[in-house]
Amino acid sequence: MNGREPIHIRPTARLASRALLPGDPGRALTLAQRLIEQPRMFNHHRGLWGYTGPAILDGRPLTIQSTGMGGPSAAIVFEELVLLGLRSAVRVGTCGALDPTLQLGDLVLASEAIADDGTSRALSDGRQPTADPDLTAALDEAASPQRSGPIVSTDLFYDPSSPAPEARWHEAGALAVEMEAASLFALGAIHDVAVGCLLAVSDVFPAPGTRERISDEQLLGTAERMGAAAVAALAER
Description:
Number of helices: 7
CATH topology: Rossmann fold
Strand order of the largest sheet: 5-8-7-6-9
C-alpha cells in the first residue's frame, strides 16, 4: 500500500478487488444480503457500512461498500479502497431525472459526468470525467437501461438557486443529476481503476420547484435489479 494506511475505512475482512459502491449504508446492507453468500462486515467505522464475501452469481469475492453522500465522502472512501487493492467498481446509486422521458424506477447508465461539484473539478483538471468504456459496455448489456449518456454531479441536494439548475443541466446534455459519479470517474482515471455507474431514478421534477419521490418498496426492487446487473458486469473482471 505504498507505506500508506487507510484512516476512515477500517477493514475487518479482506477487500475484494471488485466492488459495488452505493452511497447509502442501508442499501449496502440490503444489496449484501441479496448478492453475497454469507456476507461479512467489511467496515462499520464512521457509519460507512461495507460487506464482503463470495458473490452468489459467480462465487468470486465481492465487496459492497457505502460511500456516503457527496463527492468529498465518496473520494475519501474510494482512495482508501484503492490503497487496499480495489481494481474495478460500479457506483450503484440514485438520481434525479432531467430527461422528461425518464420515470421513477428507470435505470440510467452514465457514460460521463458533467462536473458541477467542487471535488471532481479539483480532481479532473478541467477534463470531463468519464466512465471506463469496457465496464460501461458490460453494464449496458447486463442492465438494459432505459437511457445511457452523460449525467451531472452536483454538491447540493437542496439547491436554493433561482431559477433551479435542472433546465441548465438538461440543456448541457445531462440525463440525470446525482452527487458522486464525477469524483469516482476522476479518481478511477488517476489510479487506473475501472469505474462504471448505474443509477436508479428516485426523483422526477414535473414542474419547476416540484419533486416526486420514489416509494421505498419500488426503490428496493429497483436497487436489487441494479445491483444484480452490476455484479454480472463485473463477473469477468
